[in-house]
Give the backbone structure.
Amino acid sequence: MENMEELVFDPESLKQRAAGEKKQHQLLFKKLQKIRPSILDKRITSLHDYYMGQMNCLDCGNCCKSISPAINDKDIDRIAKYLKKKPSKIVEQYLQMDEEGDYIFPSQPCPFLGADNYCSIYEARPKACREYPHTDRSKQGKILNITYNNIAVCPVVYDIVQELKKEFL
Ligand code: SF4
Ligand code: SF4
């Protein structure tokens, strides 16, 4: 496997590289749809473990700076308890409903992200934040659209995809 793409993470460069390789990625993801689920899960989760092990998310924080997780009712209750506020206050103060009916943080960076890239509600953070970038979940074939969108956001996903290209393209 290659070394990590960035020693100092540059989100703009990642975005540009992902855009430049878009056609390749589209072709790859079409091919990935046809791979047996157990093989796909095994390959992606093992690449996830390797590349996540090379990355310190505190040096990056790009997910929290550029996209919002979907936030469910359980998340709202947990955050409310953690901040000792009413759930309705959390909704009023921090959230907005998107067109799909999910609560999201309406603007980025996330209101809970600190300048040091620490999450101020880390213990109570939404499930989608805990699971991001979702490349260690089972049934990867069912979330390929999410992984595809994350190529331009998460350097770990970008690196996983570079390896998948070598094998499956
Ligand atoms: S809640 Fe925490 S982990 Fe989730 S986006 Fe905000 S800062 Fe990041
Ligand atoms: S999960 Fe990905 S985008 Fe988020 S901080 Fe870690 S490396 Fe960066």
